[in-house]
Amino acid sequence: MTTITTSVQPVNDTQDPIAKETLALNNPQKPLIIGGAIVGIILLVYLSITQTTAQPLLFGIGLLLGYTLFHARFGFTSAFRRLMSVGNGQAMRSHMLMLAVAVTLFAPILAYGTTIFGSSVAGYVSPVGVSLLVGAFVFGIGMQLGGGCASGTLYAVGGGRSVMFITFIFFVIGATIGAYHLPFWTEEMPSFAPFSLATSTGLGYSGAWVLSLVLFALIAWVTLVVEKKTKAPKMAPVPTESGWRRIFRGSWPLFAAAIVLAILNALTLLTRGQPWGITSAFSLWGSKIASNFGVDVANWGYWQGANAAALNASIFADSTTVMNIGIIIGAFIASAAGGLFKFTQITLGNFAASVIGGLMMGYGARLAFGCNIGAYFGGIASFSAHGYIWGIMAMAGTFLALYLRPLFGLSVPKSNDSVC
Question: So what family is this one in (predicted)?
């Protein structure tokens, strides 16, 4: 950590999913690019032969999501942490742009009601209750300890950040435990019925769209006020290419990535009938593994009803699984294109933080009906009140985690620091 005496120096928070060793562009790692492309093509062909038409399309969307996330270093964990620690709201404003584009695209799709394949469309609209409050708060703490959110974990694994493999493993374990406990939280704990700004208020999707844009603008304005009052440091630039080469190598602008991610989420909704999600696949993977070890997961409340089919089917029949794999491969190819794929050092401190953070994220995501993607991004884009509540509670968890991170040797950006 290099301490700077002024309060306006850039913040380069390298506890993001991409470690500091990867902040300089190198020559493209061509063998890795070719290997990643071959694996992607094989999976695409396999899905085309064995699964429905939607699966290879969703795999392709996953590839683009991973590619975009890596190139922009687009984070949710770091965005929350920078705002809460030093008042920097640049990344949060990119979230607001992403959400504004998303609701603009989601509104007509949800109003129309069918996918490109003719099946029904439904957004993520979930109850607001104790389960959501506890889950989002726990997730907020977990993502700050684990070094990344759900999407951040996947693209960091694809980029080769070694400690994120630990986070990933325990994320799956936590999501599986959360699936086992979920009936208690949803059936025994109090909650309100799902509330949609579009269908529960009489505003309709057009009215909800206008209201959403007003809320996003208000949040963006608040971040500007906070920055001015705190004299927040700017985010440090990340090395990149110029011209058309920037598409393949180097950092993308956050606002460009925000637009791309919103479009890809809308394409996901239009293809499979649900927005982008991540953590339901983690519960599926963990439950299948537990079943192979003799655990009777089929009798868990979580795996009753509509979920039972997924437990008994191939994981490649699960659209979220297919997209998650695509994200990892897409991020891998993007990192290799920048010459950035490299396994990084694991210390005792970040190992312990990754174990605890992964468990908390997995458990919290299951209780809160999703993670930063399914609940926050997908929920708000679907005009659900629970998405906003998720964001507030995750921000509260982030605030607490700022005091916990130093216990594990993890940095916290300060107003007079350029963390590097």
Answer: Belongs to the TsuA/YedE (TC 9.B.102) family.
